[in-house]
What we know:
46% helix; alpha+beta; single chain; Arc Repressor Mutant, subunit A; globular; four-stranded antiparallel beta sheet; six-stranded antiparallel beta sheet; Jelly Rolls
Amino acid sequence: xxxxxxxxxxxxxxxxxxxxxxxxxxxxxxxxxxxxxxxxxxxxxxxxxxxxxxxxxxxxxxxxxxxxxxxxxxxxxxxxxxxxxxxxxxxxxxxxxxxxxxxxxxxxxxxxxxxxxxxxxxxxxxxxxxxxxxxxxxxxxxxxxxxxxxxxxxxxxxxxxxxxxxxxxxxxxxxxxxxxxxxxxxxxxxxxxxxxxxxxxxxxxxxxxxxxxxxxxxxxxxxxxxxxxxxxxxxxxxxxxxxxxxxxxxxxxxxxxxxxxxxxxxxxxxxxxxxxxxxxxxxxxxxx
Length: 288
């Protein structure tokens, strides 16, 4: 992490359905990636620029970045001062439950705008963080639900259904299945196309259309997702790197930081600390 930057990516043990990130970034760039959860980012200072659905969006103080699960996006600072923000990553199940209780949305709920200027909503997100950091789980849970209900009411809608399964989409899905199954030792692009009985360029085009990124970018994103699951389970860093196909811990760290926002060691320390808090010790064992 660059000098002057700081970030904490964590989860309160009594709020298991939401991850939290509070960060100050100056020169940080996020590679194209996805999240399994929703992203609700409240900008406190500076400007975050992110590319989402083929467009560039700028979010300044009082604005919210709203990204639905599985949507590819990248981000970088909008100026030399970087940006500071509070982010919530609520699980889809939590969003669905809140939508069912507080809205008339039927189907998969989601956000219809990538960025909105909403100082009141941004203030609520900051209150979730402050309450969680001070150990007030009841207050944090309350602010979280009020904030999500408000955002769904003002900026929510029903997410589109799955794309029509064209021949190209089916090829892309088969390619993804191969990469998932062989994540640590994937085939070359040419070998993958040959295995699927298609051409290299038709495969590239189909994969981009279906997943919003080429296979190698998707694979890096998938490896980081898998690495997070292993780190959540307490697997040491070196074993995690090898299990998902990174050459070493440095390789894992480079890509992990450009997608998650913190180094894998810091991420794992927070998970171990959360486990310690849940057991009543409050201590995290050394990170290996």
